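Q: what sequence does this backbone want?
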């Protein structure tokens, strides 16, 4: 605003772009956001002042002969100190309605762009170019799964593998218990057989432990 006011004496100012360094050529028009993509520039900067009429450029070149230019004047004062802090704080408060309007406008432009790209891809699909090559797109007989569906399938597959490992561990634990139970049953059977054999040997007076 200060630069636009400063150079307005030369002619009507169309726009002022401030950059961190000089760049070749004209800048492409892009959707400027009031809430997003704000980059704080520090140190020396470069300003591009665009006038509505070419004659204003010559008038701007002649300003260097008039002496120093004052950015802060009584008619257009530059806020400093606590006034600048208050203005910065007030500017930082987001209006929900303005934010919603900007987001809706961005999404409408994005949907329009995607629809145009899809229509162009569908039109060019299967059509050979000048050299006879046919462009193959991702959409075909088996289109790729959406990212969300593919992610869900991966989660389900992991859960399935986890359940399988758990069931296998449970099976091993059950098998271990069954083996231990059979071993104890065999020991008891052998103990009963030994008792019967000792009793029979005693009855026949053939049992001599010493």
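A:
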């Amino acid at each position: 605003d200060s630069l636009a006011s400063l150079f307005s004496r030369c002619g009507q100012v169309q726009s002022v772009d401030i950059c961190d360094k000089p760049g070749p050529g004209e800048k492409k028009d892009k959707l400027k956001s009031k809430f997003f993509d704000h980059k704080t520039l520090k140190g020396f900067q470069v300003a591009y002042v665009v006038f509505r009429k070419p004659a204003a450029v010559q008038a701007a070149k002649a300003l260097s002969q008039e002496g120093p230019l004052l950015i802060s004047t009584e008619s257009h004062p530059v806020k400093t100190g606590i006034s600048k802090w208050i203005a910065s704080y007030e500017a930082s408060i987001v209006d929900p309605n303005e934010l919603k309007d900007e987001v809706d406008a961005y999404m409408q432009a994005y949907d329009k762009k995607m629809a145009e790209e899809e229509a162009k891809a569908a039109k060019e699909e299967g059509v050979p170019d000048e050299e006879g090559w046919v462009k193959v797109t991702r959409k075909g007989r088996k289109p790729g799964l959406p990212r969300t569906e593919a992610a869900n399938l991966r989660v389900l597959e992991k859960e399935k593998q986890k359940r399988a490992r758990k069931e296998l561990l449970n099976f091993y634990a059950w098998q271990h218990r069954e083996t231990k139970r059979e071993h104890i049953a065999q020991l008891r059977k052998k103990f009963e057989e030994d008792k019967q054999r000792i009793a029979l040997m005693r009855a026949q007076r053939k049992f001599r432990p010493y």
